[in-house]
Design goal:
Number of strands: 14
Strand order of the largest sheet: 1-6-12-8-13
Strand content: 25-35%
Order of helices and strands: EEEHEHEHEEHEEEEEHEEH
Shape: globular
Helix content: 25-40%
Number of helices: 6
Distance between the termini: 28 Å
Length: 223
Amino acid sequence: MILAAGFGTRMGALTMDRPKPLIAVNGSALLDHAIEALRGAGVTRIVVNGHYKAEQIKAHIAGMPDVTFSDESSEILDSGGGVKAAIPLLRADALVTLNADAVFTGPNPIETILKHWAPEHMDALTLMVPQAHAVGRKGGGDFAMDETGRLSWNASGAVYSGAQILKASLFENTPQGPFSLHEIWNKAMAAGRMFGTMHSGRWADVGHPEGIALAEAMLHEEL
């Protein structure tokens, strides 16, 4: 699933006429960067959600037979509620999710988490980047990772890249309507089943206007 539902506020004037996922970075819409990453890892069923100017996102993916739209135009469901709403569309026991405002260099981020996914002892696996490799990041880190890969909240730790795998069972007994993925992560952490793996390339946060130029510079340096 690609998390593409937002309020259209953080990018200021850049989103006056389009939602953030359709802003171009290096000649391609942010949403297309995410779709390419998923397809490149062999994902064949993709769900994209949308809230602000949702009709534009729906029109953008029209004609893509492997992509389905999850409409949140009437009520935005936050990160956890958005993923929960997509579970019936994805029809899978485990879900790959990817934020629409993330751009990567290095190996395919989805291939990396799929390679390290071990459902026998994991309920969640997030792709992390060191703070030094988090381009345009505002604020500190998100999680500390111990020697086994288990995660705990820690603002001085590594940065969550917006790519992860979650078991659908984590969403059982969760609220109807909006709720945060933090509730899902806390559940997995409490069970000792939330893990991280490091991305060996770099990652850019394009959730704010200056992130566009920073992401493009990062991609050009990689060429």
